[in-house]
Structure formats: C-alpha cells, structure tokens
Amino acid sequence: MGNISPFFSSKSNVSISKIDKELVEGCLKNDRVSQRKLYEKFAPKMLVICMRYAKTKEDAEDILIEGFVKVFAGLEKFKQESSLDTWIHSIMVNASISYFRKNSKHYQVGSLEDELFEIPNSSDLDGLAHLTGKDLMQTLQSMPDHLKCVFNLVAFDGYDYEQISTELGINIGTARSRMSKGKAWLQERINKIQKLS
Amino acid sequence: MLKQTEQTNLQHLLENFTEQPSQGVWNSIESQLNVVLPQSGQSLTQTTATGKGSSIFSKIAAAPLKAAAITGSVAIVSTAAIITIQVLNHKPAQQNFQIPATQKTELALVSDSVALQSDENQTPVQEHVSKGIIQSPQIVNEPVSQNPVNNSINTTPTYTVAQGKPVTSNQTANTNTLKQEPTTKPVVSSVTNMSDPVLQNQEFEPFNPVKVTIPNVFTPNGDGYNDQFVIEGIENCNDNKLIIKSSSGKLVFQSSDYQNDWNAENCPDGVYIYYFVYKVNQIEEKMMGKVIIKR
Prior knowledge:
The complex is a heterodimer of chains A (197) and B (295).
Chain A: H1 6-11, H2 18-28, H3 32-53, H4 57-73, H5 84-103, H6 112-116, H7 133-142, H8 145-155, H9 161-168, H10 172-196
Chain B: H1 4-14, H2 24-36, E1 44-45, H3 50-62, E2 73-78, E3 82-87, E4 95-100, E5 104-109, E6 114-119, E7 125-128, E8 139-140, E9 158-162, E10 174-179, E11 187-188, H4 197-200, E12 209-214, E13 217-218, E14 238-246, E15 251-256, E16 270-280, E17 283-293
Parallel strand pairs in B: 1-4, 13-17
Antiparallel strand pairs in B: 2-3, 2-9, 3-4, 5-6, 6-7, 8-11, 10-12, 14-15, 14-16, 16-17
C-alpha cells in the first residue's frame, strides 16, 4: 500500500521533520488528538489532490476519508525515510485510483482504437498564464473521467505510462492516447476560458 | 506528451491551492477509526434508522481492520435486529460493537478476511474472503414455511471466526454440512477448526449431519486412485446437478443426477470450476469451487 512513485522518492531526500515525527508518534499510540492534528495539518492540501481526480467536492471528500483511514491504519509501515507529506500524498493518489476503478462509468480497459490512435504532435499547453488555480481545478474536475485519471497521474503525480498501465489495468497505448486526448481537451477548455476573459 | 516545463507550470498553478474539507469529514474518519483502530473501553453503537444504518455501515466495512487491532477471535452474535461484534482477546480489553442489522448488512472484518452478510429473509451466509486461513461454520436456517420470521431472541446463533490459523494440509475439500432433519432453530452445523478455544466454548447443535464434500483436486491418470471426481455424501443429495466449466468459462461437463463418474476425458490438466446444486429436505443447497485436474 502506498508505493511512493519515483517522482516523489527522488524529491524526498527531505526526510521527516521533527514536528511531523512527534505527530506520527502520537498517532502510532492511537491518540485521537494527535490523529486529528495530523488530519488538520494535511487535509486541505490532500483534498486538492482528491479533487483533481473526482467530479465533485463530495466525491473528493469520500476519497479523502478513505485515504486518511489508510494513513492511520498503515502508519506503522511508514518508514520515515521520506517526508510525511510525500507519504500521505502517495496514499491519496492510490485512494484516488481505487475510486476511479470503482466508480467511473467510463471505466474501460481500452480498445483497439486506443492502440491504433496516432498521438499527434502537440504543442505546449498554451495560455496557462491566464488561468487561476481555481480555473484549473474546475476544469480538471469536469474533464471526462477516463481521461482525467491518466492526465492527473502524468501531469501531477509523476507516474509513467508503464505504472499507469499496471495500476489502472489498461494497455500502455490506451494510457498514452488518453493522456493525449486529455491534454487536447484541456487546451480546448483553456482557449474557451481565454475567450471569455 | 507533456514536457517537464508544462508539468511544472500546471503544478505551480495548484501549488498554494488548498480546500477546507467540510465539517463532517473528520467525523467520518473518526468513526471508521473507531472500528479499525478501536481504543480501549470504547464501544461503537449505530443507532441510525434502517436505510442510513446500512450505508454508513458499509462505509465502515470498506476500511479493513488492522490485524494488530484484533487479536484472537472475533465472535459474532446475531439477534433479530442487531449484529453484535465481540472482539475477544482484544488488547487491552474486550470490545463490543453493536450494529443494527438491516435488510442487507455487510461487514468486512480483519484485514482482507471475513465478510458477513445477513439478509433477514435468507440464510445468513458467511464467506471468508481471506486466503483460506479463516474457517467459519455455516448456519442453516429452518425452512421459510416453518418460521418465516428471523431468529428468536433466545436462540441466537453464534458463530466464530478464528483468525490466523493456517489451513492444515488435510483440509483440501470444500465441506457443506447440513442437518438431516429440519429443526426449529438455526444451527451451527460445521466447524472446520475445532482446536480454537473460543469455538470449543460455543454450543453446537448438529446431530447426524449430512456431509457433502467436494474435492478440490483429482488425478484421473488411471492409477485407480482418485480417478473420478467423487462427491462424498452424494447419496443424500436429491435432484442434484453438477456443472463443470473450464477456467475460461467453457462448459466441459454436466449431469443431473450425478453418479460420481466424471473422469475428465478430453479435459486437459488445469483449474476448473464446479457448480453443484442439490436438495436436502427440500432445501436447495449450492456449492461452488475450484477443482484442479492433475494427471
């Protein structure tokens, strides 16, 4: 549970801070006060991660709940070699993936079309400078489910296509095509937002 | 497809973005923690109405219980309306959890282990979802016509699940044990691990049980030993029907009124799935499982 993706383990030569270490110790003793403190500290940021993967804030909170229960239940396994933030982050991503697998109406393993889909040479995402964080978040939330999961894993959470293929149980070709389509979808949305502003 | 710079730009946009969770979120986490990581002396009672009870309950069930939180055995006592979970030998103290049993209540206890289902109109069934370590007895309800209402309060069936006891090597069969005569109370009828001290303290009622045992491996290689797929106890199985499918779902054998004579002709070695349906005392029973054919 909670395999830290390579993206994070390379960043995490920051090991656990002293404050976090104390929090963890309290939580390991199953002290509800410490657990609440840990939750209060990390939840706002972690909810953002879950919101990227979910359609609504309510769904995101469901993922958050499941994620935190896993955090506390599995805290013994946390080796404290990486930062606590990194570890919790990876659990949230895993919880988001499970959520996607369980709930997405469009959850399909992928089709031959995906494999044959030719990835167009795309230019860089344009117009990001005109977006606010809120814009981006809302846009991500409305991205079609099957594209959204892959897009998030690549763009934000450092997964490569092989890992995505394994985690989601889809073919690599499908993963790539969804990423490409997700990016194209995002670009279209950005263009629309720009036109309105 | 997405360059490092693009990734950085995207991430940068959300870097300082936070979102406060709603008020109830911590409560939900805490109530799951009360099941998964119970604190000593704490009891958990669900008193919500039927509809809500089951949905909250299944959320709790979704979180697997930490193995260290429950040591020893978990005993489940079922009354008409409440499922009480007693955590025995819990360190530091015995824990009781009471949860209202609604039409359909699912509970998953212990990391990747027990799942329980209680539907008041049907036979309560226990399946263990674990890797075969946990053995649980099966309860048989009296026929619906005799007693359409659920268990009376005085005769609560008790079934226990022992955790962490490995399957011994001679437990290779799938056993279904039924009472030969109908009774007026539910009965614990088969326990495959009697060495558990908790189980020994329970009261059981089976007498002259009908035991139906289906092997999970057989070797049709002509050596005279184990050459047919033999279902023990089949003489008590009326109106029986056996279906064998390959692991890819292809039907390879079927028989109504099976005579213990299948020898897996034209079936290569491998894993197959059996479905065996039969009646005892007019009650239909089903058994299903895997059988390995190895010559």
